[in-house]
C-alpha cells in the first residue's frame, strides 16, 4: 500500500493548493479527518488509562493528556544504480501527568542516528524492531538529565537502560554551546557511549549555523569507534518551507586505524503541507572509502503525519 500511496502524495503535494479543483491530497486530508481524530483520541485514552492504572487517586481532566501524540513516516530512498527501497518510522508518545509530568511512555521504531545512518547505508525496518521505553526527564543545575528504561522488541527481546546528560550555554558572545553524553547498556549490544558537542550561531530569524561533532564507542567490538564532524546551515524560507545544507565526514577505525571513510554534501528540503503533515526531499552526494572516493548520489523522500490535537478539526 505504501509503495502506491507515498509517490502519489509526494507528487500531488507540490501543487496541492494551487488548483481550483480539489487535488488528491486535499481530498485525502478531508476524507481522513475523522480517522485522525479517532487515532489521537485513542492515544489520549491510552495515556489516561495507563496513568490511572499507575495512580488511581483523583482523576485528571482529559485535556491534560492532549499533548500525547503519534507519528508515522513513510519513506522511499534510492542509491545510485540500485533499486528503490521503502521504509517506515512509527512513534507513539504517551503523557503521564500523575507522575509529576516528567515521565513519558514511548513506543517507536528502532532508533536511527541520522549522523551515522546515511541514505546509501539506510537499513530498512523490514525486521520490524521496535523500542518500548519509559522515559524520565528532569533539570538539575541547568543540566538536562534523561533516563530511559525499556526493551527492544525483536526476535530476541533486548532490555536496555539509557542515560543522557546535556548542558547548554546560550548567547555566549552571540554563540550557543551544547555538550552531551549518552550511555546505553543492553543485553545484546552491550555498552555503547556517545559524546558530542554543538556550537550554534543564529544570524537572524531565518539563518543559523551549527557545527556538530560526536564520538561513538561500542564495547563489544574491539575496533568500533567513530568520529563524526558535521556543519549545517539552516534556512527558514517561510512558515511552511525549511532548508538544511549539510557537510559531513565519517572517521572510523573499522578495518583500518582512524581514517576518513566518507565525505558527503546533503540538502534537506522540508515542506509542511499542514502543521501536522510534511514531505521531505533529501538529495545527497557522497564520496566513500569503499568506492575509492568516487562521487555517488543517493535520494530520499519522506512523508510524515502527526496524530495530535492540531491534526483534525
Descriptors:
313 residues, 3 helices, globular, mainly beta, signal, Porin, 14-stranded antiparallel β-barrel, 13% helix
Characterise the protein shown here:
Keywords: Signal. The chain has 313 residues and is mostly beta strands. It has a single domain, classed as monomeric porin ompg (Porin). 13% of the residues lie in helices and 54% in strands. It contains 3 helices and 14 strands. The protein has a 14-stranded antiparallel barrel with strand order 1-2-3-4-5-6-7-8-9-10-11-12-13-14. Strand 8 and strand 9 form a beta hairpin. It is globular and about 60 Å long. The two termini are 26 Å apart. The mean pLDDT is 84.
Quick recap:
Keywords: Signal. By secondary structure, the chain is mainly β. 13% of the residues lie in helices and 54% in strands.
- Number of H- or I-type helical stretches: 3
Please outline the major beta sheet: 14 strands, antiparallel, barrel
Mean pLDDT: 84
For the record, what is the CATH homologous superfamily label?
monomeric porin ompg
Write down the CATH topology.
Porin
What percent of the residues sit in helical stretches (DSSP H or I)?
Answer: 10-25%
Strand order of the largest sheet: 1-2-3-4-5-6-7-8-9-10-11-12-13-14
